[in-house]
Amino acid sequence: MAGQPRRSGRVPLGAIWPAAIVVAIAAAWSCYWYLGHSGQKLAFERWQAHEARAGREFHCDDVSHGGFPFRFEMTCGNPRMTIHDGDTQAVVRAKTVRTIALAYAPNQVIAEFDGPLYIERDDGSVIETAWNAARMSMRISPILDDGRLKVSRADLEVDAPLVNLIASPGRTSLAYRAEAFEAHVRASEAGAGYDLAASSAAPSLTLPDGTQRAVDRAQFVGSASQIPALASGDWSERLARWRDAGGVLTVNAARIDYGDSLAILDGMLRLDGAGRPEGRINLTTAGVDLANVAGEDMLGLSGIAALSIGALGSPVVVDGRAASRIGLRMQGGTLFLGPLGLAELPSLLRH
Length: 351
Fold this sequence. Notes:
Oligomer: single chain
Helix content: 10-25%
Distance between the termini: 107 Å
Structural class: alpha+beta
């Protein structure tokens, strides 16, 4: 009809390019995810090979991957690690481990654990661990070609942990339980060490004779240097390398609170040439009944230690409360309380 505009069968270019951009972005992201997914599997296999060379063989009964499009997920069913340490062997078993990493932050990994977890040694002893929930967040560097994994930060939170040390079948030698436990590890600015922090809410220990020891809270804040020296070998070899590298454990505060009482340790420790602990530790107490600590052993070690704390301690103030502080010294294989030698210290190295 005259006067009407002619219509074309072509779609205007301005209506196509937004959809084309969306499709291109989706395709690029899909490629990125699948490349990352393949890289995750390859990195896991390299890590397994590295651990096997270090005497730690890790296996899963079944492994599944997923999380498209925004997460990289891996689920390891019935994980098992066999650890060879010198002439001894231990097997660690759990139910499930799940790892999750956001696709846009693949080095930030969250791991969730389903228990119980068992550590079985070839001498028949077992460590049995259970919990309501356990979750770890880690910041890791890209796994290197040789499978090495470097963790720059790790945070662990466990709800209602329970640990039983079973020395022989049917015989629990020690049991630990708490309302909650958490631990935090950070790579220190020094480069070869880590800052450490841990706390346990309402922890309790059950001793072999059935006696129970419980406190309101236990906390630790400190740092350790030369951690890479502890990477492989049996523990005697690791500690020897750590000592030779100049490793030091710094205790900023190891604190126990129980009612109106508290005890705090701080100081620095290392290993001497014979592998014995060496250094200084300060003990600060407040509200502690020294007579109760000594018990009936007033003339024995615990009684002498309790009386020495009262007699030799320097007055200080902690949390606005009067407290007593005394120095413990470890030197030449002996633990000293002030000038008093309390006990001989064993070597931590195998001879």
